[in-house]
Automatic annotation (TrEMBL):
InterPro entries: GalU_uridylyltTrfase_bac/arc, NTP_transferase_dom, Nucleotide-diphossugar_trans. Residues 2-267 form the Nucleotidyl transferase domain. Its EC number is 2.7.7.9. Gene3D superfamilies: Spore Coat Polysaccharide Biosynthesis Protein SpsA, Chain A. Belongs to the UDPGP type 2 family. CDD domains: UGPase_prokaryotic. It comes from Microbacterium soli. GO terms for molecular function: nucleotidyltransferase activity. Keywords: Nucleotidyltransferase, Transferase. It holds the Pfam family NTP_transferase. It is an enzyme of class 2 (transferase). This is UTP--glucose-1-phosphate uridylyltransferase. It catalyses: alpha-D-glucose 1-phosphate + UTP + H(+) = UDP-alpha-D-glucose + diphosphate.
Length: 290
């Protein structure tokens, strides 16, 4: 199975930081956000990854390339710890890049992967959502797809006041713990119109048939081709395997929002063996002074 990581967004919520730097390259502690996503795919057994990029995104491909000058300097200094961390990003997987061209939406970005993916099922991982490595989600989704043939989406319970920020799923229970049949999807529903408080978060395992659906999917909300609309068609097809949802109850970090991005850095840093011992007492002292 291959993985697709759409990374062509403009990152307007983080301007001016993202004026010249891709939002996917914003550091989360000491790694860019997109490296966490690539590492998640690799941990799930995927070693062929396609990143969909746009203009001014060359820093992403540079990050996953070797840097002989830097590596040589670190080797000369005997700094093996930093050398291993630098080399890890270029040794993670077989990473490919294709440009989206015009930013026509997530569905259009996924469609750009068709030539690379071919007729096989594939995973889609959005770079805004970081899943904690201690709470693996993707292997369960892959196993569910292999068992059912259905498109699999990751769902998470969110506060009803926040559901308008996500795609919301209408669901029916099926056998299996935490697994639900998705009967409908609404992209960013208006207040009071969400079919549930189950939000679609940025992990999907999709059959290759989704490409044919995306080709005929007209622009939807925001004038963009929405992946949600294509999944809605798959869910409504009585002759197909449909769409199922895996409910995720683990640790997830939203780096697409400024406040949640800062929270993600703090949460991950305090759990680090090399940072937590020094950071926790300072955080307590800082909080007491507020």
């Amino acid at each position: 199975m291959k993985a697709v990581i759409p990374a062509a967004g403009l990152g307007t919520r983080f301007l001016p930081a993202t004026k010249a730097m891709p939002k996917e390259m914003l550091p989360v502690v000491d790694k860019p956000a997109i490296q966490y996503v690539v590492e998640e795919a690799v941990s799930a057994g995927i070693d062929d990854i396609l990143v969909i990029i746009g203009r001014n995104k060359n820093a992403i491909s540079d990050h996953f390339d070797a840097v002989p000058e830097l590596e040589g300097r670190l080797a000369q200094k005997g700094d093996r710890g930093r050398l291993e961390r630098v080399m890890r990003s270029s040794d993670l997987a077989d990473i490919h890049f294709v440009r989206q061209g015009e930013p026509k939406g997530l569905g259009h970005a996924v469609l750009r992967a068709r030539t690379h993916v071919g007729d096989s099922s594939f995973a889609v991982l959005l770079g805004d959502d970081l899943i904690d490595e201690r709470d693996p989600l993707l292997p369960e989704m892959i196993a569910m797809h292999e068992r059912t043939g259905a498109a699999v989406v990751a769902l998470m319970e969110v506060d009803s006041a926040s559901i308008h920020q996500y795609g919301a799923a209408a669901v029916e229970p099926v056998d299996g713990d935490g697994v639900l049949k998705v009967t409908g999807l609404v992209e960013k529903p208006a207040p009071g119109e969400a079919p549930s408080n189950l939000a679609v978060i940025g992990r999907y395992v999709l059959p290759a048939s989704v490409f044919g659906v995306l080709e005929r999917t007209p622009p939807g909300r925001g004038g963009e081709i929405q992946l949600t609309d294509a999944l809605q068609e798959l869910a409504a097809d009585p002759s197909g395997p449909g769409v199922v949802g895996v409910v995720f109850g683990g640790r997830r970090y939203d780096t697409g929002d400024r406040v949640d991005y800062i929270k993600a850095i703090v949460q991950l840093a305090v759990d680090r063996a090399d940072l937590g011992a020094e950071l926790r007492p300072w955080l307590k002292q800082f909080a007491e002074g507020l």
